[in-house]
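Risk register update: the risk of archive-format incompatibility is retired. Evidence:
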Amino acid sequence: MKAGKIMAAILAASMAVPFCACKRNPDKETETSPSESATATTVKPTDSATEPTVTETEPSESETVPTSVEDQSSEPLIIYGYDKEFGNILKDYLVDVEFVYEYVEPDKYIQTLNEALQSEEQKPDLFMMDKDNLGSFSESGKTMDMDSLGIPRSELYDQFAYTYQVAVDADNKVKALAFELAPSVIIYNRALAKQALGVYEPSDVSAKLSDWRTILDYAHDVNINSEGAVKLLEDREQLHDVYWAGHTEPWVKDGKIAVETDFDQYILLQESLFAESLTAEQTPFSREWASDINTEKTVMFFGSLQTAADVIGYVPGHEEKQEADNGATETTSDNADATGETSETEPVITGWGIVPAPSATYDGGTWLMVASTCEKKATAAHVLRILTLDKDTLTDLAVKGYFVNSRSIMKRCAEDPNFISDFLCGQNPYALLVPEAEKIQISSDPLTDRYADSEIKRLLDAYLAGDILTPEELKEQFVIGMEELLGLS
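Archived output:
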């Protein structure tokens, strides 16, 4: 594949960007960039994507966003992150910024970051943030909102809306911009799908797994037909996250906790999966969990392309074509028998496919935040624009296999045949993932959602352990617990 052809499909512009869609190989940590510090320059998106309607809750540029911001320090920008490769990205794209990149091991990152933010020396100016901790950092006073950096919400018109809606504070101020996205789908083993569902092509599988009722029915069938050797799902925990992503009703109505029918459906779903041993009950992403998926003991799991890369070795872009064993081969051959007659063999089905989950959601992603103590606002804003808004940067990263936060660029990837995946047996993953990312909905009350999520998990465990005797009692305790947490009792 020629890079020029891909660029023509993506931006229809005369840019020469080398095609390097390959699996990411973390290199050594990047510590500093030797180039000089730069003042912030506005890099406005130039694509003609349709701008979303501005709502009344969005800030007015003239009233809340400063026309310019300045640096109050000449020191290098200090950037914290939990991804070694991110240091190389900074080095590649921040050619006019003097910075220091501090890499921290992922399992120590949040503790180290909090300690650094409270220190008196070398406080982080800008830092990476994951999905799990984004909400608490957005709501805290540790981070600076985009308005204060001179980046109005109107400048985010080409970004996927959920990525900044999930990162707002109590005043609806955006506190982080997403660098890489991870919309989630169902990833399934085509051969096992043929055995379990009777079909294996994405259009057919999608129809079979379009709602939770049919997923439960097939989980039962797979378990019975395989005598427990194969499961439709590896665990119940992933299902929890995807299920509640489809909950759009508020938990509080007229000052009272509102429990809708999807609550009852969820308890029934989880109880059936548990009581009939319809999942392997493995911890998501554990060694045993991944092993079962790769040894054809599980038909499907939920995940993003990042998850697929980690679990089953998915590689984005054209480099997959070098891995012949990963693609599906559906061959029908005529073999001559002893009489000279031919017989048609059954097609050999291998490989993986993806289809939408019953609820649109995401299982990860990377955001960038600016510390409230940052004295280099102009430079921090400049970095955010380069890494999350600049079309040249995002195009280059998309070609390398990143799901970037640009609706227009990712839509072009979805339409570009050069992104068809051999690993996914001829599917272009972005043709599915981009619409899913557009459909993701974020609650207007994320704190209440987190309380509800915690209470549901706690009470469900107690119910399945027999400490809570009935679904009605579980529901009553949920209402009482939420009232206490929200101060409604």
